[in-house]
Specification:
Immunoglobulin-like, alpha+beta, 5-stranded antiparallel sheet, 7 helices, 428 residues, 3 domains, 21 strands, 39% strand
């Protein structure tokens, strides 16, 4: 046991060392990305459609285009840094016919250079289109940096055929307070509920759907580290209009967990439909790649000691979040700061593994995923097929800094690469 502990400890040290040698850009610059197009910064804007019923047979689509500051090129002019851009949102229906189009030409001005590289600060634009249910649509977002002339393009498919049958639910929407008109109730802005930093006294959960004439009921169930699928709120209504919209206030005291899952269940005439929505909160010192605590704990298996593993098994669900913070606090190379470099690097590698090494299981659980998480991007990748009579493929990963080489074999040519020689350094 002591030997295995020392082995894991040494690989944790290697992981820490690689933070210095392998910056985040390396995650996207290795030969491992040959089969995937690397997105430029201008392509990294967000296109987020929200749906709200407004009639028995029509729905309002409010689409947000969010431009993070780092996605644009800023030019210094006197005491300011300025980025000029053009953005647009288009919605298309049958046969790609344009049903609506909106364009914005604008610029962002900041005085502090650090803001130009911010992943938090962003500029928002939104469009509102009301369209009939029962069809499929496509929302298209475009962004052009007017200085570099580079363009980004995104599209989202919207299937409204699902609302032809009643009862049906739209995806619940989380609403935050923000001055202005954002396409919904004045002073309310929708959010995906992803890593929300500030939400004051609480949020509003907007629940809506389509119903038949007659009585219906809606139950809202909450699951997080404190509770599991417990009934949070219930209300009833009558489907005289053919649709409904209801806002439920959720106080911040109910949102202390990283992940809060709201399960909305609509019942009418013996039929039951449900939709889930996840609200994740920002926690200082927690990686931006962590959205589900249970999964994040499982993904730590490569660096946990046997004792830590046993301690986790003995703990209740309510205490696992506290243990998660403690495990990473003990591994924080800069414990006096909010940012945990090792944690961010580790889960960044987990994310990369999931994006590039998935086979018959999540990428982080594959052999290539394990090696990537522990050692980072290889210095060299060689792909070979030594025999024309065999369907087997090989990849050889070389790490010159630590004098290691790993050989992966894909027996059938389906992308399921396995280590030729088992690696005993991880706690599998």
């Amino acid at each position: 046991m002591e030997k295995r502990y020392m082995i894991r400890k040494s690989y944790l040290l290697i992981l820490g060392i690689f933070i210095v040698f392998n910056m985040r850009e390396d995650l996207l610059s290795q030969g491992l990305t040959r089969n995937k197009k690397i997105r430029t910064n201008v392509e990294k804007f967000s296109l987020i459609p929200f749906a709200e019923p407004v009639h028995a047979d029509s729905i309002k689509i409010v689409t947000f285009l969010e431009i993070p500051f780092y996605s644009l090129q800023f030019i210094k002019q006197d005491d300011l840094f300025i980025a000029a851009y053009q953005a647009s949102i288009t919605i298309k229906g049958k046969k790609r016919i344009d049903l609506g189009h909106q364009v914005w030409t604008d610029s962002i001005k900041v005085s502090d250079y650090s803001e130009t590289q911010s992943h938090v600060l962003n500029r928002k634009h939104f469009s509102t289109f009301t369209i009939p249910v029962g069809e499929k649509y496509v929302v298209i977002g475009e962004l052009q940096d007017l200085d570099t002339r580079k363009k980004g393009f995104q599209k989202k498919k919207i299937d409204l055929k699902q609302y032809q049958s009643k009862p049906s639910l739209t995806l619940p929407i989380f609403m935050l307070n923000l001055n202005g008109d954002w396409g919904f109730q004045k002073g309310k802005i929708p959010t995906r509920g992803f890593r929300v930093r500030e939400f004051g006294e609480g949020i509003e959960l907007q629940v809506s759907g389509f119903v038949e004439s007659g009585e219906f009921s809606v139950g809202i169930y909450l699951s997080n580290s404190m509770t599991s699928d417990s009934l949070y709120k219930e209300f009833k209504g009558y489907g005289n209009l053919g649709f409904f919209n209801e806002s439920i206030f959720i106080p911040s005291s109910e949102l202390r967990s990283i992940k809060n899952t709201f399960n909305v269940v609509l019942t009418q005439n013996g039929h039951e439909v449900e939709k889930n929505a996840i609200f994740s909160t920002y926690k200082p010192g927690v990686s931006n790649f962590v959205h589900d605590l249970d999964i994040a704990l499982k993904q730590m298996k490569y660096i946990l000691t046997n004792q830590e593993r046993l301690d986790l098994k003995r703990q209740s669900k309510k205490k696992k979040e506290q243990i998660f913070y403690s495990l990473w606090k003990n591994r924080d190379p800069t414990p006096n700061t909010e940012y945990n470099e090792l944690m961010e690097e580790y889960y960044g590698r987990v994310w990369y593994a999931n994006e590039h090494f998935d086979a018959w299981q999540p990428g982080w659980e594959t052999d290539r995923g394990m090696i990537y998480i522990l050692f980072g991007p290889p210095d060299e990748v060689q792909s070979t097929n030594p025999s024309t009579s065999s369907s087997s493929l090989f990849q050889v990963w070389s790490y010159y800094k630590v004098s290691k080489q790993f050989v992966f074999k894909d027996q059938n040519g389906f992308g399921d690469f396995r280590l030729e020689t088992p690696f005993l350094g991880a706690g599998l």
